[in-house]
């Protein structure tokens, strides 16, 4: 029996654990729009809107990026999160971006696409009915890296785009994020030539957005020590970083699944409270009203 190479095994574990196949087939976006075309690849935003939403509105917005090790994954991973947050009054978006399995790309293109998505949303805020000063980004695992990178990493901009339009979100909601790409961090072998510029942990500054992080204590890919170090660096830079640890939980524990969604509920409720503290949402979480 052939042994699976360590790197491939790790990638397979990520694809399984992040919930690449979610069990929310009844959830569909209100609209899909193309935000970027690269050669023959059209990348879309899957948009969920609040009830009675109008282009003249000025709603808060969140943009999610799926997990999958920069290799695979699907926007449907965050459909349940989008549906809930749209019910709370936000325009909620799950973004496509290029990945190796479908587009033969590197992690660098993932970040470029993440920045393009944020730039497009901010540029079209008046047509989307959103407030360009209240745009959050979020994601899980490698998608958490993409979101975190839009908040800290300065390089990896798509050529030809207007860099005067900021790609930095105003808040970050990160689920077991890959935010250390240093020699001891995740994915270093794939980005080692540019890891210092690529790693969100090594690019925290006074403009890094307020952040909430969710992590299981038994995550084999993102150690608790990494999350604690990130929080310490954020605090040292005068930035807010709320860290929520979930005892005994593995990578991808937060996903919506067919069955027990305890941790989906717990993490989304905390995300709701965080966004409410930034005045993106009003009132108490209502998740129990739209449960399974």
How would you portray this structure in words?
This protein is α/β, with parallel strands linked by helices and 292 residues long. The chain has a single domain (6-290), classed as Alpha/Beta hydrolase fold, catalytic domain (Rossmann fold), CATH 3.40.50. 32% of the residues lie in helices and 19% in strands. It contains ten helices and eight strands. It has an eight-stranded mixed sheet with strand order 1-2-4-3-5-6-7-8, sandwiched between helices. The radius of gyration is 18 Å and the shape is globular. Mean pLDDT is 91; it is low at 1-23.
Low-confidence stretches: 1-23
Highest CATH level, the class: Alpha Beta
Q: What is the average per-residue confidence, as pLDDT, rounded to a whole number?
A: 91
Number of strands: 8
CA-based gyration radius: 18 Å
Order of helices and strands: HEEEHEHHHEHEHHEHEH
Binned, the helix content reads 25-40%
Task: Please outline the major beta sheet.
Answer: 8 strands, mixed
| Measured distance between first and last alpha carbons | 42 Å
Strand content: 15-25%
Judging by the overall fold, what is the CATH architecture? Answer: 3-Layer(aba) Sandwich
- Given the helix and strand composition, which structural class is it? alpha/beta
What oligomeric state best describes the polypeptide chains here?
single chain
Main β-sheet, spatial strand arrangement: 1-2-4-3-5-6-7-8
Please indicate the count of domains.
Answer: 1
**Cα shape:** globular
How many helices? The count is: 10
């Amino acid at each position: 029996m052939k042994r699976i190479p360590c790197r491939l095994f790790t990638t397979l574990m990520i694809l399984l654990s992040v919930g690449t196949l979610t069990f929310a087939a009844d959830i569909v976006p209100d609209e899909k729009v193309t935000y970027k075309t690269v050669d023959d690849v059209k990348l879309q935003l899957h948009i969920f809107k609040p009830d009675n939403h109008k282009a003249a509105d000025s709603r808060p917005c969140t943009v999610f990026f799926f997990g999958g090790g920069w290799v695979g994954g699907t926007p449907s991973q965050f459909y349940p999160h989008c549906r809930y947050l749209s019910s709370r009054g936000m325009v909620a978006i799950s973004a496509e971006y290029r990945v190796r399995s479908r587009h033969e790309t590197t992690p660098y293109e993932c970040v470029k696409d993440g920045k393009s998505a944020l730039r497009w949303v901010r540029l079209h805020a008046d047509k989307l009915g959103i407030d360009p000063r209240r745009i959050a980004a979020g994601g899980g695992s490698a998608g958490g890296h993409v979101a975190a990178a839009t908040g800290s990493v300065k390089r990896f901009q798509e050529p030809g785009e207007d860099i005067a339009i900021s790609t930095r979100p105003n808040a970050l909601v990160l689920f077991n994020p890959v935010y250390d790409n240093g020699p001891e961090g995740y994915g270093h072998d794939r980005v080692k030539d540019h890891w210092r510029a690529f790693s969100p942990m090594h690019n925290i500054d006074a403009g890094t957005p307020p952040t909430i992080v969710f992590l299981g204590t038994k995550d084999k890919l993102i150690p608790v020590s990494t999350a604690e170090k990130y929080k310490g660096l954020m605090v040292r830079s005068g930035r807010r970083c709320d860290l929520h640890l979930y005892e005994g939980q593995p990578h991808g524990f937060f996903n919506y699944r067919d069955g027990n969604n305890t941790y989906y509920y717990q993490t989304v409720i905390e995300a709701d409270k965080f966004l409410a503290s930034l005045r993106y949402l009003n009132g108490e979480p209502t998740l129990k009203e739209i449960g399974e």
